What does this fold into?
Amino acid sequence: MTEVKLDDIVSLAKRRGFIYQGSDVYGGLSGTWDYGPLGVQLKRNIMNLWWKHFVDDREDMYAVDAAILMNQKVWQASGHVDTFVDPLCEDTVNHRRYRTDHILKDKGISPDGMTMEQMDAAIAENGIKSPDGNPLSESRTFNMMFKTNVGATFDENSISYLRPETAQGIFTNFKNVVDTFYPDLPFGIAQQGKAFRNEISPRDFVFRSREFEQMEIEYFVNPEHWQEAFDELLASTHDFLRKLGLPDEKVHELDVPAEDRAHYSKKTIDIEFDFPIGKEELLGIAYRTDFDLGNIQRVSGKSMEYTIKGTNDKFVPHVIEPSFGVERALMAVLSTAYREDEVNGEKRTYLALPEHLAPVRYAVSPLLKNKPELVEKAREVYKALKAKYGNVMWDDNGNIGKRYRRQDEIGTPHCVVIDFQTLEDDTVTIRDRDTTEQKRVDGKSL
Ligand code: ATP
It folds into this structure.
């Protein structure tokens, strides 16, 4: 398998219209990325696959799409205002800011389980300087939520935040869903949408962005049965990762030790993946107990209890949360699919994407674009395939060899060429991206 570097992915993503730097034309805005035509399609395919796997194919899942701006009490009750912080230190000469744990990690020292004071001590003991070689300040905490004001009055009451996770929009709608649908426990509420974190040092392409997309489930259970639900969602997550085409041997479970878990979590498994930047978190599954619903109940004064149908048995449900980041899934998919090989003595780059994820499923070309009868026939085939699959591309740019190269690089599994024989018997040539083999088939069989 090709040893893939992050730079290979970044340059292919830009060159072929998957992902561009956000606000590029004005010099960019750090930690933001714009999806181009192919990136939008790939991202949508990943998100739709998740939706099908975790929502449509299950009987116990409900969906919400909550507002991004929420009442500030949401973030006070959830603890984000006080505790959604990262340790920040500063280069004392040029005042560049860094995440203290990242500074340690980059020097091969694991910050896991360390307090901020212990991290500062490790920096001092090891004589670690900033990346520019200057002394570092002591660390302080930095809240990662983007603060804003809602409405025309700028005072304490108008403060709001761009949501740093989609989860709270699910918890605040728990009672609404129960009151309107009264589902049996256990059941889940799923949501996909944007989340925003003012990361101190966004890096590694889309892996650590300031604006990103999450796919989250809050799965509500009777606390006596949390373990079964946790195990089932973990197994289902592995099935989903296989559907993304990620090889099992690159996927690792990390049972997060108590000292590194969020204080409300009784168990967390991080799913790590061998990215080109190393083994890093792809997603997490956490048993969040009744922490969130309990906080909402306490701060809002409204009951979050669930009554088992036909009984007086009431309790605040506990929650298992599988939380996926779309950008990290996309990076895992791209880095798994990236391949380099040699065809007819020439280096070739291609993306071996699974057919159901490929942004373009079929590319259709006339053999010669100056022959109207070939173009007309090719348009016919193109239209029929497009009506069937949607993501089909018309490609008559350059010679056939160039077209194949371009389609290989964007991961198109099949290139269909219409030639003179098509005019006689409706057969077309179809070329396989991975083997580069071509065969003649009945055009109507596609
Ligand atoms: P990390 O430790 O890498 O900062 P986290 O533990 O803070 O991640 P969670 O709060 O558990 O992340 O968020 C759930 C998921 O959202 C992560 O597993 C990841 O896929 C995604 N995610 C979190 N932060 C970012 C980010 N800045 N950019 C892209 N995806 C992110």
Remarks:
- The domain at 6-69+167-334 is CATH 3.30.930.10 (BirA Bifunctional Protein; domain 2).
